[in-house]
């Protein structure tokens, strides 16, 4: 027997899950979010994190429909929309001050805090890891999905929304397709108070985004909270398990630095300007996190044309549906666009069916199927763009190729 009122579970408390939840909350539609992480403290959310540029048709549209645009505007400005591109020796080949962009940046932590602050605390369950999801059909044709949280028990829902990222458990209900290695490795480091401590490096990377490219690798920066520069190193590597085979896994950033800077297969042949940026970032990361291991990870993607046969009672959004590389800046925007459109479908079905779970599912089923078809088409276009951009940026002379992209909008550096 289904419950008299639709039971909705959202798995994952990232931008996709939180945005969906807030849009439903505004229409008084009940739900429960299950998030793997423990609830972050205000201190944790104040720390530097990745910056997200939101686009008018997707991320910003969702923020506006949530009624948070004015609050959002108060949280931007830590990273400008300025762009700089350099070669592997640190020579600036292109710069602009953001005049060619209208995509404001917000830190991932700030976006999380903004969304969570407008949701009822009782509807977010923190520290719950989903181990498995299984669905069954009742004699009346109603589909129920059971969520197994291990020691935390099992719960049953009429609709499960998988916003649970790359290695989604909910996706396993819909398809056996798994992410595959993209061919690149990423190391993330942070320099806090960069302007005060290292004004020459702050001048190098600028107030927004910075990309030094060459030899199929990249050293990039984004400015962020606490006057930080978030440093990302990307290495094109055939070996999916590079961190372990290179001896970098379980090392501090300072310990890993020697291999990164000396190995000609990494950035051993790069110029002293970029090597200094990496050296300082490794030192600052180790100072901030004494004993902590360097954040190095392989990048994964789902197939560009990923789709699945629709199944009643469950769907996936965000990275769970269309994991792609970060080279088009579309990940969070697609995720929030998914949230916006899926919420529209849920709201419409809820208005049609009222509080009857079976009627709700019957009304929702064709709407979600249409949503999934549309999502697959949207995400394929962006995944193709991301793949193409990655090939451009991480070619042998990625800097020159990337500058050509910006030259149609702005002025090369003199």
TrEMBL record:
Residues 8-241, 316-355 form the FAD-binding domain. InterPro entries: FAD-bd, FAD/NAD-bd_sf. PANTHER family: FAD DEPENDENT OXIDOREDUCTASE DOMAIN-CONTAINING PROTEIN (PTHR46972:SF1), MONOOXYGENASE ASQM-RELATED (PTHR46972). One of its GO terms (molecular function) is FAD binding. It comes from the Eukaryota. The keyword Repressor does not apply. Pfam families: FAD_binding_3. It comes from Lophium mytilinum. Transmembrane segments: none annotated. Keywords: FAD, Flavoprotein, Monooxygenase, Oxidoreductase. This is FAD/NAD(P)-binding domain-containing protein.
